[in-house]
């Protein structure tokens, strides 16, 4: 068994593989660390490029595009390693990026997942949207980051250089203890893509594990390589999967009020999209809610299973609205939440 397997899930990402895989190979592979590309049924020449140029990279071929969640689950079942790293194909990694993550995980056996500091490849002085320096959620399930509150992205001035226990680690570069990954049954296949890492990190917390950001390690992420932020399909997954996640993981005492509040807020945002002429966005929210109700029976069964291991995680969730703090109180940086930070 290897110490670490860095697994890149690829779908028609030949251009990113050509740009970033050489650096991943040169700055990652050692006798104890493998680099693996799991190909999600690509129709471009991704696999041919890897086999022709990187014979030391193992390729796992999947027969179709299973999405992020199922794609990784299927691939990781074929990987034997103490630690998995789920790495996006559009991430640039510097020399030595893995060492701080390995060292931290070796010393902290109750930590299930960790992540590096994630900076913007195209603007490296700033954090990158998908993770920044560690993720959190508020009581309504809206995610935010140390270094990124909603749409506001901070410059990295070393203000978040301390390791910190976080609520979720970013799927752009996500370091898992393989034992914990499978104890939690991996990523939820029904999510397909988006927010599945938050759901898994929440389940791990409910099982008694912790998640961390280790800023001594840093990587550079392009972002939006598969679906850009303004894509209606991405909006659909974000709305739907957020409801999936809340239903599965919330304590019973908060389930009804939280879900009801989110449905109202989602409906209001859909109306705004409609009045703004963004009909595809309105449709995305509507279909997300339809699919949520369609799957309520399945979610109820999953919740029943997860409840067996549930612990009190309320101290790790922000008990204020990140939306009201951002838009009404103009709190746009993580460190501008001093009275709230203690509740995380």
Outline of the structure:
With 344 residues, the protein is α/β, with parallel strands linked by helices. Helices cover 40% and strands 22% of the residues. It has helices spanning 14-26, 46-53, 67-76, 99-107, 178-183, 196-206, 232-249, 252-275, 279-294, 296-306, 322-327, 338-341; strands at residues 2-10, 33-40, 58-62, 81-87, 91-92, 111-120, 123-127, 135-137, 143-145, 148-149, 152-153, 164-166, 173-177, 210-221.
What does this structure look like?
The protein is of the alpha/beta class. It has 2 domains: 2-221, Spore Coat Polysaccharide Biosynthesis Protein SpsA, Chain A (Alpha-Beta Complex); 232-311. It is 40% helix and 22% strand. It has 12 helices and 14 strands. The chain has helices spanning 14-26, 46-53, 67-76, 99-107, 178-183, 196-206, 232-249, 252-275, 279-294, 296-306, 322-327, 338-341, and strands spanning 2-10, 33-40, 58-62, 81-87, 91-92, 111-120, 123-127, 135-137, 143-145, 148-149, 152-153, 164-166, 173-177, 210-221. The strands form 3 sheets. Strands 1, 2, 3, 4, 5, 6, 7, 12, 13 and 14 form a 10-stranded mixed beta sheet that branches. The protein has a two-stranded antiparallel sheet with strand order 8-9. The chain has a two-stranded antiparallel sheet with strand order 10-11. Helix 1 runs parallel beside helix 2 (46-53) and helix 7 packs antiparallel against helix 8. The longest helix is centred in the C-terminal third of the chain and has 24 residues, at 252-275. The model has no long low-confidence stretch (mean pLDDT 94).
